[in-house]
Specification:
heterodimer; A: mainly beta; 6-stranded mixed β-sheet; 4-stranded antiparallel β-sheet; 0% helix; B: mainly beta; 7-stranded mixed β-sheet; 54% strand
């Protein structure tokens, strides 16, 4: 069965520290991969996406993600967090023309 | 601003009632997706329409229905509402077959 797993439900990181959020998927074929961010009371905003090619992709707000086919993973990283990065982060996977399948999300708290 | 508009933003109603949620996709987007977000289930795909035709169904209850009109706006109808239907309902749209979705800010439904 197709699935997306975000192992970390809550993460607390100090401002200025680095971040890595994990995402693993199980799909029959290599899907398209996405990270979305949701701030309180807001919709989901696309951070970055991977379709093919270079396995390290850059996104908005200083985020990047690396696709590792052998591990079926698409982990999100940021070298230095800002307090405004506190939000809910969702990994999503899908195939062309189909709805995205979302992970349960990781809630990020950034402490001073 | 994603360009996707959802109304109403908030809705409070009673069990057994019926409500309609409205979505206007980004200009030019032919696909509309509906998702339900709740604390326990996360983001669940409900239904996908493409240019007026139903393309795929996800975890949509029989009490729920949707349609997409010739002007491409979509409506999600929820009937015989139960307490458990309280959730945030998102509409998303896309233009290309890349899986990239643009989300509205959601309609928060509270069933009392």
């Amino acid at each position: 069965a197709q699935s997306v797993t975000q192992p970390d439900i809550h993460i607390t990181v100090s401002e200025g520290a680095s971040l890595e959020l994990r995402c693993n998927y199980s799909y029959g074929a290599t899907p398209y991969l996405f990270w979305y961010v949701q701030s309180p009371g807001q919709g989901l905003q696309l951070l970055l996406k991977y379709f093919s090619g270079d396995t390290l992709v850059q996104g908005i707000k200083g985020f990047e993600a690396e696709f590792k086919r052998s591990q079926s993973s698409f982990n999100l990283r940021k070298p230095s967090l800002h307090w405004s990065d506190a939000a809910e982060y969702f990994c999503a996977v899908g195939l062309s023309g189909y709805a995205l399948n979302f992970g349960k999300g990781t809630s990020l708290l950034v402490t001073p | 601003d994603s360009g996707v508009t959802q109304t109403p933003k908030h809705l409070i109603t009673a069990t057994g009632q019926r409500v309609t949620l409205r979505c206007s996709p980004r200009s030019g987007d032919l696909s509309v997706y509906w998702y339900q977000q709740s604390l326990d289930q996360g983001l669940q795909f409900l239904i996908h329409y493409y240019n007026g035709e139903e393309r795929a169904k996800g975890n949509i209850l029989e009490r729920f229905s949707a349609q997409q009109f010739p002007d491409l706006h979509s409506e999600l109808n929820l009937s015989s509402l139960e307490l458990g239907d309280s959730a945030l309902y998102f509409c998303a749209s896309s233009r290309e077959n890349t899986g990239e979705l643009f989300f509205g800010e959601g309609s928060r439904l509270t069933v009392l």
